[in-house]
Amino acid sequence: MNQVTAVLNEVRASSPLVHCITNTVVPEITANVLLAVGAAPAMIDLPEEAEIFAGVASALLINLGNGSSEQHRAMPLAAASAVAHDRPWVLDPVAVGALPVRTRLARELLEQTPAAVRGNPSEILGLAGESAGGRGVDSTDAVEDALATARGLASRVGTVVAVSGPVDLIVSADRTTRVTGGSDLMPLVIGTGCSLGATVAACLGAALPAGLGRHDAVVAAHALFAAAGTVAARQASAPGSFRTAWIDALYRLTPDEVVGLVTIRDA
Amino acid sequence: MNQVTAVLNEVRASSPLVHCITNTVVPEITANVLLAVGAAPAMIDLPEEAEIFAGVASALLINLGNGSSEQHRAMPLAAASAVAHDRPWVLDPVAVGALPVRTRLARELLEQTPAAVRGNPSEILGLAGESAGGRGVDSTDAVEDALATARGLASRVGTVVAVSGPVDLIVSADRTTRVTGGSDLMPLVIGTGCSLGATVAACLGAALPAGLGRHDAVVAAHALFAAAGTVAARQASAPGSFRTAWIDALYRLTPDEVVGLVTIRDA
Amino acid sequence: MNQVTAVLNEVRASSPLVHCITNTVVPEITANVLLAVGAAPAMIDLPEEAEIFAGVASALLINLGNGSSEQHRAMPLAAASAVAHDRPWVLDPVAVGALPVRTRLARELLEQTPAAVRGNPSEILGLAGESAGGRGVDSTDAVEDALATARGLASRVGTVVAVSGPVDLIVSADRTTRVTGGSDLMPLVIGTGCSLGATVAACLGAALPAGLGRHDAVVAAHALFAAAGTVAARQASAPGSFRTAWIDALYRLTPDEVVGLVTIRDA
């Protein structure tokens, strides 16, 4: 069986509990996406509770988009707790590079060795100190321009780095995968990127205990998102109805259908 | 006229103003649901403002899902203000039992005598100290397993306890009602449970000033939600489109249609 | 070319980056609306980051609906930074007049000379100290009752005051415009008013650098919202599906279609 198919089957079978510390804009869509893909969401931000919960959940997402200082206090505690309890955690460095508080925090969090980092090209460059970080959540850099930086980051930190764009780039120290699919409407629905970070966490939380690979788990999340985007774009041509069709597709697509809808290439 | 019909008519007629202190994931769907059922939502979290507003609104919802410490400071002030001004308030003990900060807070709040408590089985058991509280917002216990605990809680606190599940259980000291209806897709849309707590508050805020019963008000909210779920499931088979159809149904269903779509049994 | 058409074309052409400090209920719909109309949203609330970002973004929205005390600390810093960097900012005085903390804050912020103020009639009266401010976000006053107050406020502060309702009133010191259109379903979708404030900011952020007028920019935002409401009401008759159709219409409508769908009258 294809590794992507195996990961997505495992998500449906094990329903990983994903602890999210995420920004104020996307909690609802993130939770709905996690439910649609077969995972269970739990947003828990209070430092005292987050530290406990990160050790119990299947995986943790830390998204640095617009958060409170209380959430910022919870993040290092939760990341350390996840690591201590051998749970994978994912860093989504929203607008890192462009804004100082979150840039410092992102670099501090990186020392806790996330299982994966997911961002747009400007954010990945910003995390590595090589870009001003785009305009808020928008990237001003192209995906392929972040390739060398992503490789360096993956090697140095020992993580999988995913760079999202029209073609997604998933980079480990010894492997680079490109996922092609999706729709131009996806960036017009807020939270598609942020909920991809959460779905990466879900795939890791399901895959690793089943002996599946970390890199494959990250690829599987991106393949699922792109496939659902491709399907939704056949049904809807504006962002309101696209959003609904896309969540329906995330729920309905079988792992085999996902693999048939996107192009996944190692190089 | 059926008591459920009377309550739902009263919600449409009086448009109760529902003050919600709720978690970071569900404010938007909660507000949209309150508007759809004929109530008026107001989320007010600052301690100083919440204390004032809880004395003015028709009813108050306190939902213990992911909240900030600032919201936690507002909750006891708002509950006390609601009680002092003779306004019903509803406690939704999300993930209580599983997490320490909110468990302590829930038990402290219980002393302010909520008019109703609504949760899933694990949360009701957790509130009573009899369960570890499930996985985040997911219940790991069955509805009927919480029956004796719900009865004890209802008697001891002098409240109505609603236990949500495939069959909802509404329990007062001297009465037990089961509501059957809805759809398996409801738990796949985040906030259907949390907005049910808000709708319980809306029904109480409309029913009590009109001389209708507290138990009937809680039953009416559950009947409306289940009926809308039943209707939405006829129109949609995936959670994105189900969510839209369900909100439309909450808006469109007449009280008589609600009563015709669900089974309500006292026993 | 019509001035409204010119403003809306400029929004699509320049994709203004809109910094929003807004309430806990509406960030997602606000971001989706900004994306649909062609702008780029960025919610940034931390005081240190908000101060920096307000000087970089095309425009700033400050919405006083349910916010944390941390957001309240950020608001004056962001407004001052916007003014210092010659960026337009918009004040949305949600529930001002009805609640004390935000009423004090709104009057303090008014000294930073917003380019526009947008609210319902009760909020505009409340901001001027002439009303108790309605029921939460609901207005208890009629639009035309706020006309004289809006004129006084516009003159005294040197701003454009928009009063939203079935007929929108846009008032500058020397000009009054009425926009007619939309649908009764709009107030049943939470965030349509709050995202109008954000779209006013987007129109100002696009119009002013292009040499277009401030009053016209505010009119254009209201015309676009009303036109999309008119279109959506032809497709949907309940708030769940209306919301989807309305966001689709915001995305699809050309500036010429907008002008054809609403009535805009100066008087």
Automatic annotation (TrEMBL), chains A, B, C:
Pfam families: HK
UniProt GO MF annotations: ATP binding; hydroxyethylthiazole kinase activity; magnesium ion binding
EC number assigned by the record: 2.7.1.50
The UniProt record lists the keyword RNA-binding: no
Residues at which substrate binds: M43, G191
Swiss-Prot/TrEMBL keywords: ATP-binding, Kinase, Magnesium, Metal-binding, Nucleotide-binding, Thiamine biosynthesis, Transferase
Enzyme class, UniProt record, top EC level: transferase
Binding site for ATP: R118, S164
GO terms for biological process, alphabetical: thiamine biosynthetic process; thiamine diphosphate biosynthetic process
InterPro entries referenced in this protein's UniProt entry, alphabetically: Hyethyz_kinase, Ribokinase-like
Record's catalysed reaction(s): 5-(2-hydroxyethyl)-4-methylthiazole + ATP = 4-methyl-5-(2-phosphooxyethyl)-thiazole + ADP + H(+)
Pathway: Cofactor biosynthesis; thiamine diphosphate biosynthesis; 4-methyl-5-(2-phosphoethyl)-thiazole from 5-(2-hydroxyethyl)-4-methylthiazole: step 1/1
Superkingdom as given in the UniProt entry: Bacteria
Cofactor: Mg(2+)
Free-text function comment from the UniProt entry: Catalyzes the phosphorylation of the hydroxyl group of 4-methyl-5-beta-hydroxyethylthiazole (THZ).
Family: Belongs to the Thz kinase family.
Record protein name field: Hydroxyethylthiazole kinase
Organism in which the protein naturally occurs: Tessaracoccus aquimaris
Gene: thiM
